[in-house]
Amino acid sequence: MNIAIDLLKTPNEVLTTLCSKHGYPLIKVGSHQLCKVCAKENLEQTNKQHQEELQQKLLQYRIHSTGLNQRYLECGFSNYSVSTIEQQQVVGYCQNFTQQLLNGSKSSFILYGTPGTGKTHLGSAIVRNLIYKTKMSARYITSAQIAQTIMSSWSIEDQSEEQWIQFFADFDLLVLDEYGLHDRHSARLELIHKVLYKRYDMMKPTMIISNFTIENLEQDLGVRLWSRLHENQLITVPCYWSDHRMK
């Protein structure tokens, strides 16, 4: 029960007993007795709790709006399994990249290597840290999903390719996973590159996750796009160790 709100209802019985905390006459509200200052404090506490609940709901909404699926919603740096020096170094690179983003860096980041090395886990951790620590927007998505979404707009009257490219370009951070996996058709690959070019033009950092080697990535992205990604000190980090899913 919100005693402060009930206090506004009349009639309330004013007692001769004084509040031991504030020295004001107590007012009987139902089965409760409190003074006007107690009532004010009660109302402020209720409002504070309400605001905290709203903020928590907003935070959860933002987390679920990032595109992370159920498997990666709780992925963080602290629960990433580290058993080698190389893994610890990669976690450090990801943490440093996150801090750079918080400081306004426009650098892009490429995490590449063999399957099962935890690259998506680390990308998810970066997304979650941005959402929890800032009001920045972040989106996790695979390259196949981007291509399919844009291509689907071709047959929808009130949508356009340009609108979706702009949509993906607007996020403060875009984590593009599975680059090179299901985007091999030239038309699909062209759409992915259009998004990357647009983000470059808007000076937005992008994280690319891929099983390609760094040489394959350079060749696949092309000379012009590869050059543009380097403009703001591109960070490239390899992940080559055993597949944790196979243990």
Computed over alpha carbons, the radius of gyration is: 26 Å
CATH topology of the largest domain: Rossmann fold
Structural class: alpha/beta
Counting DSSP E segments of at least 2 residues, the number of strands comes to: 8
What assembly state would you assign to the polypeptide chains in this entry?
single chain
- Morphology: elongated
Write the topology of this structure.
Elements: H1 3-7, E1 13-18, E2 25-29, E3 32-34, H2 36-64, H3 85-102, E4 109-113, H4 119-133, E5 138-142, H5 143-152, H6 161-169, E6 173-179, H7 186-201, E7 206-210, H8 214-221, H9 223-229, E8 235-239
Parallel strand pairs: 4-7, 4-8, 5-6, 6-7
Antiparallel strand pairs: 1-2, 2-3
Helix pairs in contact: 3-4, 5-6, 5-7, 6-7
How would you sum up this structure, described in words?
- InterPro entries: IstB_ATP-bd, P-loop_NTPase.
- This is ATP-binding protein.
- Keywords: ATP-binding, Nucleotide-binding.
- It comes from Acinetobacter pecorum.
- The chain is an alpha/beta fold and 247 residues long.
- It folds into two domains: 61 residues, no CATH class; 177 residues, Rossmann fold, CATH 3.40.50.300.
- It has nine helices and eight strands.
- The chain has a five-stranded parallel β-sheet.
- It is elongated.
Give a quick precis of the structure.
It is built from nine helices and eight strands.
Which structural traits does this protein have?
247 residues; Rossmann fold; 2 domains; 17% strand
